[in-house]
């Protein structure tokens, strides 16, 4: 079993980094993004079923666009039903196929936000079509909502429209070196420094390797194990890092935790 420390706030399984969109502001868009091999359904299911998590800490199925994994429906269907799951998706999948293969209970739990979170992408998503998809799935019992990066000035209008339709529509900060609310702003100054860093997230790459932060995941460095390893101990203490200054914005921003408490940061850094 893979024991999840009590201090951990997030678990994400990146089934694939493939995506059918090409947004300029994508947090996964790196020229040097590793070409991870894609694990098949069996390995994903065996690995994820080893994770001993809690009801309030789901495994988030993400990507890229996770539904592009050739075994997406098999993986979701075969994961132990006692393991809570969330889904991050751009919503480009076929609604009929999804509802035929995935029971509404598979992505539903007691939480202050939707288990299936659609991401709105300006220039790639027709907002009315997305509203229709969300309402259709919601009426069938799925826990669904829309999350949008606060990049397009129209999103506030869309959020008000969504409210009148009874759709949960939330905004996320646009993140780069000039935008965002960060606990460690100097972590983005581009000057690599040594520090000690304590993680609170389990990030699983498409090939099953385990990483402590998005920087390491997106660069393919400092993996501390594999989801199929016989013995896996997730790091709970401070670990040395030589990349402080080149951190990923997702790792050092101030955000809401899984209980929707504001002010959480994915890492704790000292000696930086």
Provide a short characterization of the protein structure.
The chain is α/β, with parallel strands linked by helices.
Plain-language structure description:
It is a single chain. This protein is of the alpha/beta class and 272 residues long. It has one domain: TIM Barrel, CATH 3.20.20.70. Helices cover 21% and strands 24% of the residues. The chain is built from seven helices and 16 strands. The chain has helices at 41-48, 72-78, 95-101, 127-139, 155-165, 214-219, 249-252, and strands at 2-3, 10-14, 51-52, 59-62, 85-89, 116-120, 144-149, 169-172, 193-199, 201-204, 209-211, 225-226, 239-244, 255-256, 262-264, 267-270. A nine-stranded mixed sheet has the order 8-7-6-5-4-2-10-11-12. Helix 2 links the parallel strand 4 and strand 5 (85-89). Helix 1 runs parallel beside helix 2 (72-78). The longest helix has 13 residues, at 127-139. The radius of gyration is 18 Å and the shape is globular. The mean pLDDT is 93.
What's the number of structural domains?
A: 1
List how many beta strands DSSP finds.
16
Shape: globular
What's the CATH H-level superfamily name? Aldolase class I
Low-confidence stretches: none
What share of residues are in beta strands?
15-25%
Task: Determine the number of helices (DSSP H or I, runs of at least 4 residues).
Answer: 7
Biggest sheet: strands, sense, closure? 9 strands, mixed
Approximate helicity band? 10-25%
CATH A-level architecture: Alpha-Beta Barrel
CATH class: Alpha Beta
| Strands side by side in the biggest sheet | 8-7-6-5-4-2-10-11-12
Spatial gap, N to C terminus: 34 Å
Assembly state (oligomeric): single chain
> Which structural category fits the helices and strands?
alpha/beta
CATH topology group: TIM Barrel
Integer average pLDDT: 93
């Amino acid at each position: 079993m893979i024991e999840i420390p009590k201090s951990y706030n997030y678990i994400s399984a990146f089934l694939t980094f493939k995506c059918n969109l090409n947004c300029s502001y994508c947090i996964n868009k790196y020229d040097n993004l590793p070409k991870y091999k894609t694990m098949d359904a069996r390995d994903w299911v065996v690995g994820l079923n080893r994770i001993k998590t809690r009801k309030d800490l789901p495994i988030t199925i993400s990507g890229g666009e996770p539904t592009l994994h050739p075994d997406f429906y098999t993986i979701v269907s075969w994961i132990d039903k006692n393991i809570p799951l969330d889904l991050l998706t751009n919503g480009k999948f076929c609604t009929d196929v999804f509802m035929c293969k995935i029971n509404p209970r598979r992505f539903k739990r007691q939480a202050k936000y939707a288990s299936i979170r659609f991401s709105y992408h300006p220039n790639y998503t027709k907002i009315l079509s997305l509203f229709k998809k969300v309402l259709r799935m919601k009426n069938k019992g799925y826990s669904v909502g829309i999350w949008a990066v606060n990049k397009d000035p129209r999103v506030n209008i869309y959020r008000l429209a969504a409210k009148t339709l009874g759709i949960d529509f939330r905004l996320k900060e646009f993140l780069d070196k000039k935008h965002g609310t960060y606990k460690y702003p100097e972590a983005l100054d581009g000057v690599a420094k040594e520090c000690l860093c304590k993680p609170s997230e389990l990030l699983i790459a498409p090939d099953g390797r385990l990483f402590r932060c998005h920087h390491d995941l997106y660069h393919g460095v400092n993996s501390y194990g594999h989801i199929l390893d016989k013995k896996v101990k997730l790091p709970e203490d401070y670990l040395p890092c030589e990349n402080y200054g080149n951190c990923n914005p997702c790792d050092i921003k101030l955000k809401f935790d899984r209980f929707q408490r504001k002010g959480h940061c994915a890492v704790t850094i000292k000696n930086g």
